[in-house]
Amino acid sequence: MKKFLIISMFAVMASMLFSSSTGTVKPEALATVYSLPKESLSNFEASSLIFMIEEEKLARDVYMTLYKIWRAKTFGNIALSEVTHMQMVQALLEK
Fold this sequence. Notes:
Layout: H1 2-18, H2 27-35, H3 43-70, H4 73-94
């Protein structure tokens, strides 16, 4: 459980620090993830990471819908950030 919390916190912090305005993860962020030691995940940890990805997808869809309605750039930027979060959590899951 402690390992899962550390992974989750790292995913959120890294996506905030290493995200770009295009909704893609910067290469140095992925390099950081892939430089971590490989560890196997419990079923709970794996399913929790998958759940996190699904939550990020939902958030992306909500912000994209808000952007389409009001055309506020802020909503578009947040939607791109959600894509970055999804990519970071996916990288952790693959690692």
